[in-house]
Design goal:
Elements: H1 3-9, E1 45-52, H2 63-73, E2 77-82, H3 87-100, E3 105-110, H4 120-127, E4 134-138, H5 146-158, E5 162-166, H6 171-180, E6 185-188, H7 199-211, E7 215-218, H8 226-235, E8 240-241, H9 253-265, H10 271-286
């Protein structure tokens, strides 16, 4: 099945309706931009949200739709970025979204080489002064050759930015990057590969994180939920971050996001570990209060 289609159709097996969070550490909060919004919990941060997707339709979602979905599910903040566009346009889209909801949305810049001009200066300008808090690289649109992505990883380390990389299962590249850039916090999307059913492959990425303290695992689009529990035990929940990889309209944006949240809430983990995965870890990594 086409991965783009499966991505859109993927819905977690958890039942709809968010499970109750423990009272300790999950106090309700009402950000000022949306005073009439529904209930929301302070600690939940979605670390993987698309303003523009990489599917065949290059689907875009407005900041308003993203925040409305967050409100309905109980998500306080989200990291947003656009892909399937130029680096410059990704910055423009993220800045426009964050200008509407500065307390809710956190921008990443998309790193994509340009045939007509170098974009490394645009990326540095985005990271300098901590205007953008991270970088997104995607194997589907960008070669992972060292002469292309190494300057981006070096910049991310220089400015203390997270580097969210979708490697498409390329363990060899992950190993090289983790070793070559020990000062860059490398966030590996989908714990290695989107919707991977190969437990051995996921194990290898967990092992990589055991070997390199700069490696963080992103749990969005993880089909083998038990591997999230295993990773928490092996590397600690402080190096696991949660994201929806949304919005997705199948069946609808709220149900999709809620199912992704429930996937974590239903795991056999301590509440403190769930709190880390659902926001504490990425906030600490970004130096957010």
């Amino acid at each position: 099945m086409n991965e783009n289609l499966s991505r859109r159709r993927f819905v977690g097996a958890a039942a709809a309706g968010a499970a109750a969070l423990s009272a300790a550490g999950w106090a309700a909060e009402q950000p000022s931009e949306t005073p009439a919004a529904g209930p929301r919990t302070r600690s939940i941060l979605d670390a993987h949200v698309h303003l523009k997707h990489g599917n065949a339709e290059r689907t875009e979602y407005s900041a308003q739709v993203i925040v409305q979905t967050m409100d309905a599910v109980g998500i306080s903040q989200a990291i947003v970025f656009a892909m399937s566009t130029t680096t410059k346009r990704s910055m423009e889209m993220a800045e426009a979204a964050v200008s509407q909801y500065p307390q809710r949305l956190i921008p990443y810049v998309y790193a994509l080489p340009h045939y007509e001009r170098p974009v490394i200066h645009e990326i540095e300008a985005a990271l300098k002064g901590r205007r953008f808090r991270g970088v997104k690289i995607h194997v589907g649109e960008c070669t992972l050759a060292d002469y292309v992505i190494d300057p981006v990883l070096k910049l991310a380390g220089k400015y203390g930015a997270l580097c969210l990389v979708d490697l498409g299962g390329r363990l060899d590249v992950a190993q090289r990057l983790a070793q070559a850039f020990p000062d860059t916090r490398l966030v590996i999307a989908h714990m290695g590969r989107y919707l991977a059913k190969d437990a051995a492959l996921v194990d290898q990425f967990i092992r990589l994180a055991e070997q390199h303290r700069n490696v963080v695992l992103d749990t969005s689009g993880v089909a083998l939920a038990d591997k999230i529990v295993e990773a928490a035990k092996r590397i600690g929940s402080a190096r696991l971050v949660w994201g929806t990889d949304g919005p997705h309209a199948d069946p609808d944006t709220v149900t999709f996001a809620r199912n992704e949240l429930n996937k974590i809430l239903k795991l056999d983990l301590a509440e403190a570990d769930k709190a880390n995965i659902l926001g504490g870890s990425v906030r600490a990594l970004l130096g957010l209060s």
